[in-house]
Amino acid sequence: MARALASDQRAASAGGDRLGAGFGLLIDRCAPISFTFEGEPCQGFKGDVIASALAGQGRWLISRSFKYHRPRSVLSMAGHDANSLVQLPAEPNVLADRHPIAPGLVVTGQNYRGSLARDRLAWLDRLGRFLPVGFYYKAFFKPKGAWRFWEPRIRALAGLGEVDLQAGHGYYDKAYGFHDLVVVGGGPAGLCVALTAAEAGCRVLLVEEWPILGGALAFARCGRSPDGAEALRQELVEAVLAHERITVMTDAVCNGCFTDHWLPVIQGNRLHKIRARQVVLACGAVEQPMVFRNNDLPGVMLGSAASRLMRLYGVRPGRRGLVATANEHGYELALDLLAAGCELAALVDLRPEPPAGPLLDELRARGVPIHAGHAVYEAIGQQHLQAVRLAPITGQGRCGDPLRPLDCDFLCMAVGYSPAANLLWYAGGRLAYDQ
Hints:
This protein has 435 residues and is an alpha/beta fold. The chain has ten helices and 24 strands. Helix 5 (188-199) packs parallel to helix 6, helix 7 (303-313) packs parallel to helix 8 and helix 8 (328-339) packs parallel to helix 9. The chain starts with a helix and ends in a 9-residue tail after the last helix.
């Protein structure tokens, strides 16, 4: 067990170093920032978030899961998951993949006993099959009076972060705004809508939760060209920022859509109460994970997370990876990983036949093994991914015998998306599936 742990730690420290020119859109390499994680000094750059700064130093283990104390790390790099929750001195459950680092910031992991790397409660994971949801409310009420003994012990294991009851109050205020059109989402669709409406004479407010405009154009590839997306982003952003009838709010979150187009927008310590004649929701999509054994192991991440690490923060997601996909975005990601100096153990396509085209031809020309009609059967490792086992797909929801393990220290899942339609549902809207 000790040898396996040491091997996992070496695998974790081997990847995740910084990339050079052409990567790291959000960071300023001339402005280093020092902070601490788990009491140890760490360093990142201005523009880094906690998770990217740690990954830049090869530190992937961020926290522990709620119930079984399983290791947790980067999954979406966009705040779309609970894998990266960390503790700040006066604030629990902070998203490490969205919270920027600052000089002297003190960060610790959550939900462990002893140390983050050697959690004394990690043995709970072995009891998973015996601990179904809510079992303790049924099992510990007998004999009569037993709950009085068990309740304080169970409650002590519940919860994640720790609340500082002595934390001081911050300063918060509010402001009001009135616009002809509010566009929520500063990706390519939102940028085009804002420009079209402004050209028609509307006073437009564009709300974007990230510090820069462009959405996926900031980290995605356009076909075979690694720079095509960034060129288009710059063109759209420059036009929007130059237009006198468009007001832009970045680092701003619209967290509701109420009657008569009343929108609460939070930016920093200020709540903007916005009224609009019309609202356009252009919030994009959220990438979905694959389902397989140990798919929560550190080193297993969404394809968009790997792209964000490279393009936005200049961090290599690992040394030797594997891409599992069901669309052309996985092929584009594979080319980006090669451009970042990563070795690819394989590209796994769930579809029976990979689509012919220049992306497939280029990957084959560069010697990347393509496994069509296969799925990821399981991820192997203790605290970090060490290998992946594949299996042929034999039918709907069925796989054949798993193949021999492929060594890798990261796995990117690029299999599909769901619309980020939260605000639409909030307003009573509905979505329908269209094949």
